[in-house]
Write a structure and sequence with these properties.
Chain lengths: ~220, ~425
């Protein structure tokens, strides 16, 4: 049996403004190692909210969250930052690169923050990741000077730099044309099957979702399937 | 664990890409610090010059015999009127001698006292300068000229001739410039003086004296102690004043009180004699600091403003840094270090500019009759001003950076990422 990477137990969340609103209702599910999972649902069904709870950035919820079988609910923000840095990679709909830094620096930043390797090792790793994504020729360019599809690949490289357990995506293809979406999907799929990386992606794109290992369908803050 | 290298690299990139804002903020600090250094150096330089002007020439304690009425009138010695209300009309001052009784032993005693740098005798005499049929009233002061030069820098006020010239000439006189001008005399000429009793003496002018105060220069001249004693027909122990210079100015008041009691003489300390002077110095310092602090606070607000704007512009960057594992504290440190870097660069530049400006002022000619030793504007190059300046720059930029960076620390990445 494969290891459980992420486990959510009875997660509830309320929005208190402007009126009390039950966004997430008793969410329980697991993600195993190497599994490629997508979350689908209508706008406002709470799927992004769920993703940010799972990402440890949102701590205002009830229930329990385990990463690698370790309870992370209720840990201090400092420890949560460290967990995000080491174990979780992010890919967002808008590329969210630091526009004043070069592509290489953007990719290296989380590893520099982690500080487990020397500068040379980090640089080598970063170039390896860029090579895997076929964008090593962009390394020295400023992040604001490359195209949307390229930016998304750079942010995938950044998400991978610390060899995380899990990559989370919030509509990673939402802003891309079909060619680039396909490209991003293939990259994800490749990492999932070849390197045993777990992926959790929120998406509206049905074609994208159909190709993943498992689809979690959400409606009104509940998991339907 | 704080990874300073990464934090400083990010701060540096932020500052360099917004070089114009960075420069504006840093120049604000530079201007504040430069103005502070220049102001404070110039003001304290002036203060010190004015203080020196007074303190150099003024004895710390001046001992003399005051002409005054006796405090205890005979009636108070008479027991029968002890409990009654006595009224005495037309009290006259007691007839006493001008000279200090036993002056030479007192001087010896004071010179051996551990707090005293030197105690020297003077003789003051009323005389007339005679120019043909005109008699000009004046004062003659008999001094030990070499001791005066050593303790009270009299040589600074001798504009022609030297203390040695007076010392070596038995009938020499250091004439006040005012008198010299009135009587059209110059060094090498002879001047006749007459005492109140009418005796006339010719003296040789060996130098000219200018204190800077016209009223004094128009009446006062210096001669050797022996010359005055001879003119007045007095013996060698005739001394009317003793001037004391102490090692520590603060001891002047208690020392003066003690001398009054011990020798039954009048002793005035420098602070009592020049009380208004202290007040002037204090107020000038107060104004200097008020202006400087205002300038630095304005610079601090400039930094606050610019950092605030920067943080609004960098919301996305902050969110992404936090999402990829930078803690709130890391983000805060990124912005704090930007503020501190601006403070250091602006502050150090300010110190250099302040130093340059003070040097410039120090080289501007400033000639005035009142201050014969001063050739250029006075500047006080006290290293403490530079230490205070840079510390204040650091403190104000730190505070100006703290509030915006605290805001950056609290930014919730989820709201920013979802808000797009």
């Amino acid at each position: 049996m494969k290891n459980t990477v992420l486990e959510a137990l009875h997660i509830d969340k309320y929005f208190k403004n402007p009126v009390l609103f039950h966004v997430l209702n008793d969410i329980t599910f697991k993600i195993n190692q190497g599994e490629f999972v997508s979350i689908m649902g209508k706008s406002g069904c709470g799927k992004s909210t769920l993703l940010y709870i799972l990402s440890t950035m949102d701590t205002d919820y009830e229930g329990k969250l385990f990463l690698n079988n370790e309870l992370i609910t209720g840990k201090s923000r400092k420890i949560l930052s460290y967990i995000r840095n080491k174990h979780i990679g992010f890919v967002f709909q808008f590329h969210y690169l630091l526009s004043e830094f070069s592509v290489l620096e953007n990719v290296m930043l989380p590893a520099k923050k982690l500080g487990e390797k020397s500068f040379q090792e980090i640089e080598y790793d970063a170039i390896q990741k860029l090579k895997m994504l076929n964008i090593e020729h962009l390394a020295k360019k400023l992040a604001s000077r490359i195209s949307g599809g390229e930016k998304q690949r750079v942010s995938i490289a950044r998400a991978l730099i610390n060899n995380p357990l899990l990559i989370m995506g919030d509509e990673p293809t939402g802003n891309l044309d079909s060619y680039n979406s396909e490209n991003v999907f293939n990259i994800f799929k490749q990492f999932s099957s070849e390197q045993g990386l777990s992926l959790l992606v929120v998406t509206h794109d049905e074609d994208f979702a159909m190709q993943t290992d498992r689809i979690i369908q959400m409606d009104d803050g509940k998991i339907i399937t | 664990m704080i990874n300073w290298k990464v934090i400083l690299a990010i701060a540096k990139t932020h500052l360099l890409t917004k070089i114009r804002q960075t420069a504006t903020a840093a120049l604000g600090v530079t201007f504040g610090i430069a103005a502070y250094i220049t102001l404070v150096s110039f003001m304290t330089g002036l203060n010190k010059m004015l203080d020196d002007l007074i303190f150099d020439q003024t004895p710390h304690i001046h001992i003399y015999n005051e002409i005054e009425p006796t405090k205890n009138q005979p009636i108070s010695l008479y027991n029968e009127f002890q409990d009654s209300f006595n009224v005495i009309h037309s009290i006259k001052p007691k007839l006493s001698q001008k000279k200090i009784h036993n002056a030479l032993p007192i001087i010896n005693y004071l010179n051996e006292h551990e707090n005293v740098r030197g105690a020297i005798p003077q003789i003051k005499a009323q005389i007339f300068y005679i120019a043909g049929s005109i008699e000009l009233g004046g004062n003659l002061t008999g001094v030990n000229i070499l001791d005066e030069a050593k303790l009270f820098n009299i040589q600074d006020y001798i504009i022609e001739g030297s203390p040695e010239a007076l010392y070596n000439t038995a009938n020499g006189i250091l004439l006040g410039v005012g008198i010299a001008k009135k009587m059209a005399l110059k060094v090498g000429d002879r001047v006749q003086i007459s005492t109140i009793k009418g005796a006339i003496f010719p003296l040789k002018i060996v130098g000219l004296y200018q204190s800077g105060i016209a009223d004094i220069d128009a009446i006062l001249s210096f001669v050797n102690l022996k010359t005055v004693q001879r003119i007045l027909g007095e013996t060698e122990n005739y001394i009317t004043d003793i001037n004391v210079k102490l090692h520590n100015l603060e001891l002047a008041l208690p020392m003066a009180k003690k001398i009054e009691q011990q020798f039954k003489l009048t002793a005035i300390d420098i602070n009592t004699a020049n009380a208004q002077f202290e007040t002037g110095t204090t107020i000038r310092n107060l104004i200097t600091y008020a202006v400087s602090i205002t300038l630095l606070i304005v610079a601090g607000f400039g930094i606050y403003n610019i950092l605030n704007m920067l943080i609004y512009e960098k919301m996305n960057d902050i969110a992404i840094l936090k999402a990829t594992g930078f803690s709130g504290k890391d983000v805060q440190l990124i912005f704090m270090s930007q503020a501190v870097i601006i403070g250091v660069i602006g502050g150090v530049l300010g110190l250099f500019i302040g130093f340059g400006l003070s040097h410039l002022i120090n080289s501007i000619p400033f000639a005035t009759e009142a201050l014969p030793t001063i050739k250029t504007y006075p500047i006080n190059f006290n290293p403490w001003f530079y230490i205070i300046g840079i510390s204040f720059a650091m403190l104000s930029t730190f505070l100006a950076g703290y509030l915006p960076s605290q805001k950056a620390k609290k930014i919730d990445p989820v709201t920013i990422i979802r808000g797009q």
